[in-house]
Write a structure and sequence with these properties.
SH3 type barrels, mainly beta, twelve-stranded mixed beta sheet, Fumarylacetoacetate hydrolase, domain 2, about 280 residues
Length: about 280
């Protein structure tokens, strides 16, 4: 059983210094857990907006991690690193304002689950990204206060089917097919400055993308403030902040890892479905 999209996305804290939080699957309940520095999980039973500690403790390698929040919507930034703009072969100049698009919640993919490339998708690329998770309702917030509305940060992969992205008028299938939004492995809540992180994407262990988040054209506060002028952000909503240079194709048998300093590694295998 899940929780309403607008419910808080974090468990009740249980007297420890907790910095990382996510969800895990222990049938028949959906549970929220907190991660200690030793990567031990403290389960918390969910019922609506209530998060009650169960007192149970599990080793992290004995549970199935889920996407760490249940967003009502996913927003993403296009062309938010200058070198990615240059490699995109679109001929465009860097945008003058944040270029926002939607990804549907049904495109979310759990840590460790396969990215499924559907028939007809053609060349499909990985795009490693820093993702901001909203912690409280944000409507028309000023840039200088925007980080007060962030619960934490996680890793994301904005999977992109290039023929559909380039050929369709809208990006509904180019960016939002099932499993096209891997997210996780958890939410890191102890990051004071999201512009001081390092983003790296690896394909089968080989580094393909590497950049500091200080290279974002529009930083996290700017993006949150801009979006909130037009769309109300609710707790659990996520913002994929854009990918850096080095995007490229992936296919069956590949494994994609998105690692962000002080957060962790999001790892997903890739499977192309038969035509």
């Amino acid at each position: 059983m899940g929780i309403p999209a607008r419910a808080p996305v974090w468990p009740w804290r249980i007297g420890l210094t907790i910095q990382r939080q996510t969800r895990y699957d222990m049938h028949p309940r959906c549970n929220w857990i907190s991660l200690t520095a030793r990567h031990v999980l403290y389960s918390q039973r969910c019922k609506g907006e209530d998060h009650t500690p169960t007192g149970m403790v599990y080793a992290i390698n004995t549970v199935k991690l889920l996407v760490p929040c249940t967003p009502s919507k996913l927003l993403a930034l296009g062309l938010n690193y200058a070198l990615h703009v240059a490699e995109s072969s679109s001929g465009r100049k860097p945008p003058e304002r944040p270029e926002i698009f939607y990804k549907v919640p049904s495109s979310l993919c759990n840590p460790g689950d396969p990215i499924m490339i559907p028939p007809g998708a053609g060349e499909t690329h990985y795009e490693g990204e820093l993702v901001a998770v909203i912690g409280k309702t944000a409507k028309r917030v000023p840039k200088e206060a925007a980080l007060d509305y962030v619960f934490g940060y996680t890793c994301g992969n904005d999977v992109s089917a290039r023929p559909w992205q380039r050929g369709d008028l809208q990006w509904w299938r180019g960016k939002s097919c099932d499993t096209f939004s891997p997210l996780g492995p958890w939410i890191e809540t102890d990051i004071k400055d999201p512009s001081k992180l390092t983003l790296e994407t690896r394909l089968n262990g080989q580094v393909k993308q590497h950049s500091g988040t200080d290279m974002l054209i529009f930083d996290v506060p700017t993006c949150i403030s801009f979006i909130s002028q037009h769309v109300t952000l609710y707790p659990g909503d996520v913002i994929y902040t854009g990918t850096c240079e080095g995007v490229g194709p992936m296919d069956t048998g590949d494994t994609v890892e998105v690692e962000i300093s002080n957060i962790g590694v999001l790892r997903n295998p890739v499977i192309r479905e038969a035509e």
